[in-house]
Amino acid sequence: MLDFAIFAVTFVIILVGAVLYLYPSSRRASGIPGLNPADEKDGNLQDIVNRGSLHEFLVSLHQEFGSVASFWFGGRPVVSLGSVEQLRQHINPNHTTDSFETMLKSLLGYQSGMGGGANETVIRKKVYESAINNTLKNNFPLVLKLVEELVGKWKSFPEAQHTPLCAHLLGLAMKTVTQLALGERFRDDTEVISFRKNHDAIWSEIGKGYLDGSLEKSSSRKGHYDEALSEMESVLLTVAKERKAQRKQTVFVDSLLQSSLTERQIMEDCMVFTLAGCVITANLCIWALHFLSTSEDVQEKLYQELEDVLGSDPVSLDKIPQLRYCQQVLNETVRTAKLTPVAARLQEVEGKVDQHVIPKETLVIYALGVVLQDSDTWSTPYRFDPDRFEEESARKSFCLLGFSGNQTCPELRFAYTVATVLLSTLVRQLKLHKLKGQVMEYRSPPRWRQRAPLHSHTHCSAKDVKMAELQMLLEEEIPAGRSALLDSFTNLERVAEYCESNYVQSPDKQRALEETKNYTTQSLASVAYLINTLANNVLQMLDIQASQLRRMESSINHISQTVDIHKEKVARREIGILTTNKNTSRTHKIIAPANPERPVRYIRKPIDYSLLDDMGHGVKASAQNMKAGGGGLPRTNPPTQKPPSPPMTGKGTLGRHSPYRTLEPVRPPVVPNDYVSSPTRNMAHPQQSPARTASVNQRNRTYRCSSVLQHEPPGAAAPKPAGGRLPAVPPTLVCHRSAQHGPQP
């Protein structure tokens, strides 16, 4: 029992150690360095979303883990190769499948090959490539015609008109691919517009929805994608049946119908070619024109080659291989713009890259965008330099990546042909140049001017995608839908006339009626489709315009808020100025007079006290003689009236030369003319002693103004009190000159 317990404990310890030892490596693909899954279900999808794109994620992945790295796409391990040497080791054993086709079909849910082994896959690939080559040979004049129409349209524009270059070149690619792949049906603009809507819906979700997992999380987006995919598949199946009945061999689908492929496989190949062909062709043309506008030397060198090889003749399919410098320009465009940044292959058999083993059924990502910007492979990798492909090593590396030679994907060869036709036609008639004073961005198209002897200029500035779509709707889609609706009106009249005449003339009325019903159903369905298409275009236009109005309203509101904030700041600043403490000085400012006075020199003068001797003195006088117990000056005559003496000029209280004058003396009271003396005044006064008189006179001389007894008013009888005394009355003021009041004798 003890032995069993020891064995059990030892086994558990070994098992736990094995799990701890193997767990970190099991989270990576066969021990290849890389990221552990951030989520059990989504893997590293959130890391891809955070980086913005799969290309940016791969750049950071290889910077951290080297040229061979791994990550998790959902619950599936993925190996990424990011150098030329590792790609060379892996491509050779897996050269039977196309990496771009494999990735696109896997995203669409299609199967690569014919459902069998490697031989069937090779056969299907050869059929696909042969169909594209035959299509270019049979329809090269059509490509030249479409390009000349676009260049002629650009030449006819006024000087200052802006052109949505991206929208126009995408339209050129869409028309070229659909007409060469599916036939004359897509010469109608309404068919091209309908095809483009489904194409854009599918491609946008393939490029974004599948990578970040948002497509599966949004039921509305998923429904819109499934609807667009089913409509496009239905159109392709219908075209294949129509072309099979016509037995023509001029377009891409005709070549596929001649093979042993099933209808489903033909539809899948047509889907891949139309989706990839439109996008690759449009991007190659757009980037080629952009890079040519940034380098006048490259543009002039290309112009000289076109003049030397073609002269004044249009380009032909057999002369394209002679345009070597044009081929270098397109190669450098693909490399600099990273036209195809990512490709993928499924590891069919177990492989090995360096010391790392890649298991079977592992998804292998080719980080072409990382390799195309690798400084170890390319000198000055971020510079547009077509001359680098004059070196044999650069051409071999480029061929190894699948951008030239036998490894080139068929869609890229098709895009090279269309871009060569565009450059050979455009560069000989228009000269491209950058907008002065504007920094060119990724979405910024160039501006061009016509070569001599033409001198008009056509501007093409950077436009938003919504503006390009709006202009496309206003210029092409809505007018085309309206004209198609008008044509259907004429066709309905013709159908009605035919049905009427057929019903009248036909002996079998029932058959004629059934035929009329069929024509009616088909005609009404066609009209309903046209109305629906036109209504959708109008609604889309209104949505774009409403979005622009909302954006404009938002800008106006932002400006209004900015103005209000500025006003409030100004108001607060002005109010704050009034509330701040001011440091006022204690001394007030002295303002000097305009005409200052001359200062007067101070002269001290002695005081003359004798100046007051001539001004007179106040004396006390009794109003009436007091008979008993009283004394005073005897007054036998009434006071006389005498005017005051005039003032002394030039005299002052402060001195003889003082600027201040002496106040005028107060005029003494005037006795009225009807003055009546009191009876007591006529009475004999008792003799007063000289001493008493002298004392009174002396006291009167001391004051200028003295108090006297108030006299009784005339005619009033003063009552005599007991004891013979007069009552005391308030004193009054009397002024006399000092000369009149000397001492009494």
From TrEMBL:
<dbReference type="GO" id="GO:0005506">
    <property type="term" value="F:iron ion binding"/>
</dbReference>
<dbReference type="InterPro" id="IPR002401">
    <property type="entry name" value="Cyt_P450_E_grp-I"/>
</dbReference>
<dbReference type="GO" id="GO:0016020">
    <property type="term" value="C:membrane"/>
</dbReference>
<dbReference type="GO" id="GO:0016705">
    <property type="term" value="F:oxidoreductase activity, acting on paired donors, with incorporation or reduction of molecular oxygen"/>
</dbReference>
<feature type="transmembrane region" description="Helical">
    <location>
        <begin position="270"/>
        <end position="292"/>
    </location>
</feature>
<comment type="similarity">
    <text>Belongs to the cytochrome P450 family.</text>
</comment>
<dbReference type="InterPro" id="IPR036396">
    <property type="entry name" value="Cyt_P450_sf"/>
</dbReference>
<feature type="compositionally biased region" description="Low complexity">
    <location>
        <begin position="713"/>
        <end position="727"/>
    </location>
</feature>
<keyword id="KW-1133">Transmembrane helix</keyword>
<keyword id="KW-0408">Iron</keyword>
<feature type="binding site" description="axial binding residue">
    <location>
        <position position="409"/>
    </location>
    <ligand>
        <name>heme</name>
    </ligand>
</feature>
<dbReference type="InterPro" id="IPR000727">
    <property type="entry name" value="T_SNARE_dom"/>
</dbReference>
<protein>
    <submittedName>
        <fullName>Cytochrome P450 20A1 isoform X1</fullName>
    </submittedName>
</protein>
<feature type="domain" description="T-SNARE coiled-coil homology">
    <location>
        <begin position="511"/>
        <end position="573"/>
    </location>
</feature>
<dbReference type="Pfam" id="PF07815">
    <property type="entry name" value="Abi_HHR"/>
</dbReference>
<keyword id="KW-0472">Membrane</keyword>
<dbReference type="InterPro" id="IPR001128">
    <property type="entry name" value="Cyt_P450"/>
</dbReference>
<feature type="region of interest" description="Disordered">
    <location>
        <begin position="622"/>
        <end position="745"/>
    </location>
</feature>
<dbReference type="Pfam" id="PF00067">
    <property type="entry name" value="p450"/>
</dbReference>
<dbReference type="InterPro" id="IPR052666">
    <property type="entry name" value="CYP450_20A1-like"/>
</dbReference>
<keyword id="KW-0812">Transmembrane</keyword>
<dbReference type="InterPro" id="IPR012849">
    <property type="entry name" value="Abl-interactor_HHR_dom"/>
</dbReference>
<dbReference type="GO" id="GO:0020037">
    <property type="term" value="F:heme binding"/>
</dbReference>
<feature type="transmembrane region" description="Helical">
    <location>
        <begin position="6"/>
        <end position="23"/>
    </location>
</feature>
<keyword id="KW-0479">Metal-binding</keyword>
<feature type="compositionally biased region" description="Pro residues">
    <location>
        <begin position="636"/>
        <end position="647"/>
    </location>
</feature>
<feature type="compositionally biased region" description="Polar residues">
    <location>
        <begin position="675"/>
        <end position="709"/>
    </location>
</feature>
<keyword id="KW-0175">Coiled coil</keyword>
<dbReference type="GO" id="GO:0004497">
    <property type="term" value="F:monooxygenase activity"/>
</dbReference>
<keyword id="KW-0349">Heme</keyword>
